[in-house]
Structures are given as structure tokens and as C-alpha cells.
TrEMBL record:
Coiled coil: none annotated. It catalyses: 2'-deoxyribonucleotide-(2'-deoxyribose 5'-phosphate)-2'-deoxyribonucleotide-DNA = a 3'-end 2'-deoxyribonucleotide-(2,3-dehydro-2,3-deoxyribose 5'-phosphate)-DNA + a 5'-end 5'-phospho-2'-deoxyribonucleoside-DNA + H(+). Keywords: 4Fe-4S, DNA damage, DNA repair, DNA-binding, Endonuclease, Glycosidase, Hydrolase, Iron, Iron-sulfur, Lyase, Metal-binding, Nuclease, Plasmid. Its EC number is 4.2.99.18. Binds 1 [4Fe-4S] cluster. SUPFAM superfamilies: DNA-glycosylase. It comes from Providencia stuartii. Residues 45-193 form the HhH-GPD domain. This is Endonuclease III.
Amino acid sequence: MYNPTVNKKTRAKYVLEEMEKLFPDSSSELRNWETDFQFLLCIILSAQTTDLQVNKVTHNLFAKYPDPASLSEAEVGEVEKILSSINYYRTKSKNIVNAAKVVKTRFHGRVPRSVEKLIEIPGVGLKTANVYLNSMYQANQGVGADTHVMRVSRRLGFTDSRDPRKVAIALQKLYPKKDWYRVTALFVLYGRYYCKARVKPENSKCIFKEFCTHCSGLDPYS
């Protein structure tokens, strides 16, 4: 039973425990990938796009361009044809071809395993780097604050910032470093299925109604 008088860190712990009950297997819902490079591409493509949409195009993408060497030689227009059903496909097509070139030449065909080096790759920002490292290796180099993580964090009172970096920092202060990969995965899933952006409070499936600002009508996203 939740006690509304507890401090923020205790509430944060409670939230993570309850989310884990909802999603005991909090692995990524991105499919069709077999290598670390392919998984990184999936995450790049998933920006402002559902995993389901990404999954529809990656089978053909990886069949034709399975590795950095083949994709680095691809014509951007040919990649656009494969990705045309996802949001921002032109920008993403250019990014992943350039990403392949960087991984091939600068990193000798191997995806790096540090945030600092990952963000040197076109299409990879801090959020993408941390989502990749946490999902792939449980690396805990940082929390990946995508739109779902940001929305859930704000509605549950863990931050009032709209800056992904500041949201990530707020969560990193609330949670032990060993849990950062779990925070990334579980907040994403909770945002995707329980804390949706446009759902009305009366129709929400939120399990944290006692302190959720959206459910109380004080939604910072409204």
C-alpha cells in the first residue's frame, strides 16, 4: 500500500517496484535484429516512431544491408524506399548510412560501448546512446530519457523539466546507478501502455493515481 507522506526517493523505489510487476520481462520490443549494429539502427529509427512501425521495415533493411560495410556503400535513395513508411524516413535514411560509414571507418566495424564514443555516430544522441547501452548491456552509464520517460517522470512528480538531459539527471539522482537500465526500460513501457500522452484522466490505466498529476488534473503536459 502506498503511503502519500513518503519522500521522493521512497516513492521512486515504490514506482519502480510496481512497474516491474507489470513488466517482469522489460526487454526491448524492437525485433528483427541480430547484431549490436542492427540493434543500434533500430533505436535510431525508433525516434518519433513506434517500435511496431520500425519492426515492419527492419526485416527488409537488414536483409539487404546486414552490416556497416554494406550499408556504408548504400545509396540513400534506396534506403529511403525501404524506410518510407516510418516518420522522418529521409533524415533517418541519411543518418543510418552515415552511421554505417563512421562505424566502419572510425570504429573498425564495431559499435563502441561508451556514451562518449556512441554520440560521435550520426543519428545517435545522449538518449539513444543510453537506451542502446542499457538495453544491450545493462551498462548503467545513464538513464535514456525519451518522450515516454519524460512524460512519466513529470506526471509522477520526479521532475518539472522538459529538457531530456535534466530529466535523465533527476532520475539518476533518485535511483541507484545499478537500476538505471531498469528505469529506462520500465518507464518506456509504462509510458507506452499505461501513461499515454493523449488519454483522458478518467480513461487512464494509471496505477499511481494517488500522486499522478495527470490523473488529478494538474498534468504538466496539458
